[in-house]
Write a structure and sequence with these properties.
Blueprint lengths: L1 H26 L3 H21 L24 H5 L4 H22 L6 H18 L9 H34 L1
Helix pairs in contact: 1-2, 2-4, 4-5, 4-6, 5-6
């Protein structure tokens, strides 16, 4: 129960941040911007949940343990036969595909492939560098597979761009 309350604190902070800061700004930009930015916010909140939470209640003890540097040997889990490697790789790719799809939409349809993939890299690198502060492991394989997922997500964005733009334009006229 105590652990659940820690997550609840983070959830409350995320909801308040959305309601008091972002919702007002995005709503004034139109329904299409509100939808896209809200989806990205929800997505990033889920990524935060799966990679670093609880955050707020962990801050007082963030420096109480030794920082474990990132494993810099790519795909070492395969060669050592550790854990469920293929599941981990698949989940990391799937986790960042929405980023590759949504990021260009948050940039008013102007983000190119390189900008999207680089932004996905920066997001993933930030997560990997911060995870040890929350007593989690950090791995170069995660970074590689996350960027791969972002690139695949951008491919889906390109594939579904006509339908996506039609939906967003339809929202603007309502």
């Amino acid at each position: 129960m105590k652990y659940l309350i820690k997550y609840l604190v983070d959830l409350i902070v995320l909801v308040l941040l959305y309601a008091l800061v972002f919702f007002r700004k995005w709503r004034s930009q139109g329904k299409d911007r509100l939808l896209v930015n809200t989806l990205m916010y929800m997505y990033l909140s889920l990524v935060l949940y799966f990679t670093m939470m609880p955050v707020v209640t962990s801050i007082p003890s963030i420096l109480d343990h030794r920082y474990k540097p990132m494993n810099l040997v790519p795909f070492i889990d395969v060669s050592l036969g550790r854990g469920d490697f293929f599941r981990q790789v698949g989940l990391n790719v799937i986790m960042t595909m929405p980023f590759g799809f949504l990021f260009p939409l948050t940039r008013n349809k102007r983000a190119k492939f390189g900008v999207t993939v680089f932004s996905c890299f920066l997001m993933s690198l930030g997560i990997e560098l911060l995870q040890p502060f929350f007593d989690r492991s950090s791995d170069i394989t995660d970074l590689i597979t996350n960027v791969t997922g972002g690139a695949l997500g951008y491919g889906l964005y390109v594939l579904f761009r006509p339908v996506t733009f039609w939906v967003l334009e339809h929202l603007q006229t309502r």
